[in-house]
Amino acid sequence: MVNLVMKDIRLGVNPWFFALPLFTGALMLVPGWIYFMVPFYFCCITVPNMLGGFKSQNDLMFSSMMPVTKQDIVKARVTVIAMLELMHLIVAMLFSLLTFRLYPNMMYYFFSPNLGFWGLSFVMLGIFNLVLLPMYYKTAYKYGAATTASTVIALLFAGIAQWIGIQSPRAHDLFYGAGVENTVLQASILGAGILVFLALTWLAYRMAVKRFLRVELL
Fold it and tell me: What letter would DSSP give residue 29?
């Protein structure tokens, strides 16, 4: 399993994508920005280029010649994707701590980078995985439709969540009002978001394995 993960990293993941979280995370320092865009850049930049790299390296044929199961191939790929997602989120969360220090009195129209917001970001990436992985593993080769659909769905979730946060009095109080100062409540939202991310990613993995088992590898 470890060897498969390392193979995926060396063949399909350009070293630039390990540095990218530092650049996208630095966007957290832009005051009052749409912070959902920071993890969203992973969806529309890293994943299409990474899957394109696997295709150009003919990774599917190479993996099929290794003494591993299809399930292990999918598990390694999901592990790499989840690892990069966590890198993007953790680095961005660290930058957000500096954001609060730089702009202590900032009035936010869009979500501020509090713990509850990061819970929503985890949910967004979980939904992204749920759409991406089963679609991609229908062939494990063609990635255009899968990356487009998953990116659009993730963007729709972010837009709807932000709209509800602005328009709904209850959600507005939770993310802009008194709820922001309730650390236990915010941590609970973050924890729930992480659990949803794990559950959706696991479900995506199971669905991807079932579809990949039907793929004929020549």
Answer: G
DSSP one-letter code for 110: S
pLDDT of the residue at 32: 86
- For the question of whether the overall pTM of this predicted structure is more than 0.85, the answer is yes
Strand spans (E) along 25-142: none
Distance (Å, whole) CA 95 – CA 70: 38
Q: Which parts of the chain have pLDDT scores under 70? A: 217-218
Angle (CA) 166-193-4 rounded to 5° is: 135
Give me the pLDDT at residue 218, please. 59
> From CA 131, how far away is CA 133, in angstroms rounded?
6
Alpha helices in the chain (DSSP H): 2-12, 16-26, 37-41, 47-56, 59-64, 70-102, 115-136, 144-167, 169-175, 183-212
Sign of CA dihedral 54, 60, 62, 68: positive
